[in-house]
C-alpha cells in the first residue's frame, strides 16, 4: 500500500501520508523512468541505402527551434522586424561602385533580360515568385542561418534547343524537411565533413512511421553545375565547430531562457487556478489504519457468515463514509483499505474545500491508542503559500529573459519597441543612430540569402554578371527630420 498520495476534485487538491515517518528520498514517491541521463554521440544513421547526418541528437533540432520560437511572445515579432528591415523595399538589381573617396556604394540598375527571367518563375511552373522565394530565404536565415534551394534546370537547355536559359528558377525547401545524405557507409566514421554528403534527403522527419517516403536530390556539383535536371544547394552562415548544418547562434545560447520565458504564463495561470486548493497536508495515524484494517477483516467475516446462511449480497454489511458506500464483500483484499482511505479523505476535503457552504459544520476525527499505549491523532497541516513572492519571482525572471532575448538578437530596444520597463526609448536620435548601426550589419545575411539567386544569374547571364550586376535588397536610409525639408517631413506627409 502506498504511504503517500493525494486526493483531488473540482476546485481542490490535498496531499496525505500515513504515519509521521520521514518521506525518505524522492525515489520513494516518484520514479524517473525514461529520463535521459546522457546523450549519445552523433553518428550517421541509415535509411534504406542512404546514410543521413541527423540534425541534433534526436534529428529534430530545427523543429525544436521552430516550436520554441513560435511559442515565445517576443521572438516571432523580433524576427518579423529583422525580416522587414532586411527586405526593405524589396529585391533590386544593382552594381557596386567605388566613389571618389574610396567608399563603396550601390548603383541600382534595370536590366530587362534579367528582370523578365525573374518575373517568369511562376509562369514556368515554379511554386513561388522570386520575391516570395527570397522572403522565405530570409526567414530561414533568421530561424536557422541555413537555406536549402532546389534548382530547376531547363530541359530545353539540356537538349541543346536555342533560346532556353539554363536555370528556370529556384525553389525554397524548408530546412525542417532536409537532411544531408550519402550512399557511402560513414556510420563508423568519426571525422565527418560537409563534403562527405553529396545528396539531400527531403521528407517529414517528425513522423516515426517506417513507411515515410523521402525524396533524394543530388547536391550541386560546382565543377559542372548544369549537369543535372534538378539539384539542391545549401547556403549557410558557417558556425564555429559546426561543419555540416548551420545552427542559429542566438538560439543555441539562450535555448533554456526561451523555455523558461515560454513557461512563465503557464506557471502563473496554473498557480492562479490552484492557489486556493492544495493548502493542506493530512497525516493519518498508523494506529487508525491498523484499527480500520481490523474492522474490515471483521466485517468480511460477518459477510462470509451471512453468505453461508444463504443471505443475499444486498443484505451484506457495508461501510458508508460521507456520501460514499463501500461494498465490503466476504473476503478481505488490500484494495479495500485503500478505498476506505480515499473515501475518508474525500469526505474530509469536502469540508476543507467548501466555499462557504460548510460554515458552521464540523468534522470529527478520533484519536487512537497504539500498541505502545501512546495516543495517535489525525493532523491537518496547512502548507504555506507565498503568493506575492512567487508571482514577483516569475515576473522578475520574465523581464530578465526579455532582455536576454533582445541582446541575443542584437536589436536595440529603441528599434524593437521593447525595454525592461515595457516603455520604448523616446529619443529620436537613439532610434536613428541605432537603426543606422543595425543597417551596417546586413551585408552578411544578405550575401548568404542572395547567394543562390546570384549564382543563377551568373549561369543565365554571364555577361551581365561579369559587368557586376547582382541582386540585393534596397534599403533606403532614413533621414533625420531636421535634415528634411518641412514639406517632406513625416508629420506633414500624414493624411488627416
Description of the structure:
The chain has about 500 residues and is α+β, with helices and mostly antiparallel strands. It has two domains: about 280 residues, no CATH class; about 100 residues, no CATH class. Helices cover about 35% and strands about 20% of the residues. The chain has 15 helices and 19 strands. The strands form six sheets. It has a five-stranded antiparallel sheet with strand order 3-4-9-10-11, with no helix packed on it. A four-stranded mixed sheet has the order 1-2-13-18. The longest helix has 26 residues. The C terminus is likely disordered.
List the helices and strands and how they pair.
Blueprint: E1 4-9, E2 12-18, E3 45-47, E4 50-52, H1 61-70, H2 75-87, E5 91-98, E6 104-108, H3 112-119, H4 130-144, E7 146-153, H5 155-158, E8 167-173, E9 178-182, E10 199-202, E11 215-218, E12 230-236, H6 249-274, E13 280-284, H7 286-308, E14 318-321, E15 324-327, H8 334-352, E16 368-369, E17 375-376, E18 379-382, H9 387-409, H10 413-416, H11 428-439, H12 443-449, H13 451-460, H14 462-466, E19 469-473, H15 490-493
Helix pairs in contact: 2-4, 4-12, 6-9
